[in-house]
Amino acid sequence: MSKFLNISREYEQIRERNKEEQERRKLPLYNRFPRLKEIENEMIRISIDITRAIINKSQDSEALLEHLRKRHMDLKIERAEILSSNNYPIDYLEIRYQCKNCKDTGFINGDKCSCLVQKEIASLFQNSNLGEKTSEENFDQFRLDYYSDEKGENNYSPRDNMKDIYMKCIRFVQNFDNHNINLLIVGNPGLGKTFLCNSIAKDMLEQGKSVIYQVSSELIDLVRESKFSFDNEENNTSILNEIYNCDLLIIDDLGTELPTQFSSLVIYNILNKRLLNNKKLIISTNLNTDEIMKSYSERIYSRLFGDFNMFKFYGEDIRLKRHSI
Ligand SMILES: [Zn+2]
User: Fold this and answer.
1) How many angstroms does the Cα of residue 12 sit away from the middle of ligand 1?
2) Residues 6 or more apart from 84 whose CB is under 8 A from it?
3) Neighbouring-strand partners of residue 213
4) Residue 70 backbone dihedrals phi, psi, to 5 degrees
5) Beta-carbon neighbours within 5 Å of ion ligand 1
6) What is the pLDDT of residues 282-321, one digit of tens each?
7) Architecture of 127-324 per CATH?
8) Spacing, Cα 23 to ligand 1 middle (Å)
9) Domain ranges of the chain
């Protein structure tokens, strides 16, 4: 089945579930307050009459329309009064959409909603597990107390350092549309780099941004397949297009890819195109600055050091603490 059909079926299912869920809320309430059911029935009748009055334009249709709209409003108010006087929120009987912007249709005035773009990315990159991962790894779950508060040089502890980085990451997310910052996150394994990247991804997704999260080696493989396999050209073009243009590209573990001419060219192209188009990037790596300079050509590292804010993680491996606490 084509990718598009799959996604449009997914929206259909979401809308069906919304409707069922709404019915489940309605039923017990309509039993308790039969007036609510009467109100709903009358509102449906009025909506039909309004449509009819608009179609059959006649001399007195204006007056009729006004009367119908007023009656509709009165019923809405009566319903809200019944609900609120019984301690229910006034929108209790409304459909609860997963995406309020497009009401789970995927489109807003014919344009793709950001939730649809994200679903397309998830299916192209098979990273739909981003949602699952981020349910456990997000800013709220971040534990500063895993980091030692033993002061080192400059009276600064790993915990102070993380606190500083954590606050900067929150600002990165909150002001996403108003800054031009890219992040280079460096440090040994086990210091929480991926955790923080996932936290940022989660917040960005909640803001309706398109996010691609790929481990460096997998990203290179994807580009290689997209460029050299001709099985599904439409898919391949979309993959490259999203890598260059999604709102945020997160490359995890830079340096774990095979160091070939091709991988170096891919990394350069991604950096160059995204920076030119003001598209933000976050890169995490276990390499230190010397190793970055040894592993990559000058045109790559000059961009990494020149166009990125560098966050250095240091301290002890926190993975053991995470499992023992
Ligand atoms: Zn939407």
Assistant:
1) 13
2) 90
3) 250
4) -65, -45
5) 99, 101-102, 113, 115
6) 999 999 999 999 999 999 999 999 999 999 988 777 766 6
7) 3-Layer(aba) Sandwich (3.40)
8) 22
9) 3-108, 127-324
